[in-house]
Amino acid sequence: xxxxxxxxxxxxxxxxxxxxxxxxxxxxxxxxxxxxxxxxxxxxxxxxxxxxxxxxxxxxxxxxxxxxxxxxxxxxxxxxxxxxxxxxxxxxxxxxxxxxxxxxxxx
Length: 107
Fold this sequence. Notes:
By secondary structure, this protein is mostly beta strands. It has 1 helix and 6 strands, in the order E-E-H-E-E-E-E.
């Protein structure tokens, strides 16, 4: 996995950064989550995408309950340093509703 330079990440005032999750093979956007410095460090160490859940105010390893892990192939920082792109291989549906992506509902 390509190393993300954590010192270049611009976290918001709550210490979080948005993470856009994209399936590496299809380039389909699966979901959006948020990460803290600590959860990004865990992701870099484990290779499994770990978020910070704003609703639970706690660490959240995606797939810990469902088994639908997001295996990280690369993490990239955008040009402003305030958004992370995670290229992943998904073990199953990314959405808690059981769909492949959280963006399957038409507007």
